[in-house]
Design a protein that fits this description.
Shape: globular
Largest sheet: 9 strands, mixed
Order of helices and strands: EEHHEEEHEHEEHE
CATH class: Alpha Beta
Number of domains: 1
Mean pLDDT: 89
Low-confidence stretches: 1-8, 203-209
Oligomer: single chain
Structural class: alpha+beta
Helix content: 25-40%
Length: 214
């Protein structure tokens, strides 16, 4: 799919599954479980705005809902729940750049950005690797992306391990370029090309990918 057509289709109800997880659309009443961990300073330690209060979490939910309704869709924010028991464990995002917005310089890094966020009690279980793998596969195989990127604080070693485990390449060390809670911090930028995704495993767990349209 040409870059100009990325995001050109309507994906109103995306649902991805991995070995242990389901990635589904965020609904209005998801703000409560989201608030449980987005309000945790440790979870938000490397996030630009830090811990979020109820108002900001509800704003995040509204953005997810509006993104779902947009045509073409370029903002995919999904809830992450356990397959067994359907417990809410985190959320993730895939945000596509607007190919017509020539002033958005992030487009030189890649066509889409991915990120993942988990409640602290679910750290260390390999869930982030499953989610990152699913987002990469969905982007390349369904959205037709040529390149996907991600970033993390240089001190966020857990995220570094995840991004490298799913095969992403460290393409840059940006000095004092990320404003994190009022302080300029260094960050690593990672990228993966579609052709590279065929040459290496994207991690474990992606067993089925499905999207339904109205």
């Amino acid at each position: 799919m040409p870059a100009s057509n990325v995001g050109g289709k309507s994906f109103a109800n995306v649902r991805l599954t991995t070995e242990r997880l389901t990635l589904r659309e965020i609904e209005e009443d998801d703000w409560r479980p989201l608030l449980d961990y987005w309000s945790d300073p440790e979870v938000a330690r490397y996030m630009p705005r830090g811990a979020l209060d109820e108002e900001r979490v509800k704003g995040l939910v509204q953005r997810a809902v509006l993104g779902r309704r947009s045509h073409p869709r370029r903002y995919f924010r999904l809830a992450v729940v356990l397959k067994e028991g359907h417990q809410f464990v985190g959320d993730c995002v895939c945000r596509l750049v607007d190919p017509d917005n020539l002033e958005d310089l992030s487009r030189i890094i890649g066509q889409a950005y991915i990120g993942y966020y988990f409640s602290r009690e679910f750290w260390g279980h390999g869930y982030a690797t499953e989610v990152a793998s699913a987002l990469l596969a969905y982007g390349f195989e369904t959205l037709g992306l040529q390149k996907t990127w991600a970033w993390c604080d240089t001190e966020n070693l857990a995220s570094v391990r995840v991004l490298e485990k799913v095969g992403m390449n460290r393409e840059g060390h940006f000095r004092k370029s990320a404003l994190i809670q009022g302080k300029w911090r260094d960050c690593f930028v990672y990228g993966l090309l579609k052709d590279e995704s065929h040459q290496r495993p994207l991690g474990s767990g992606v067993v089925h990918r499905r999207e339904t349209r109205p």
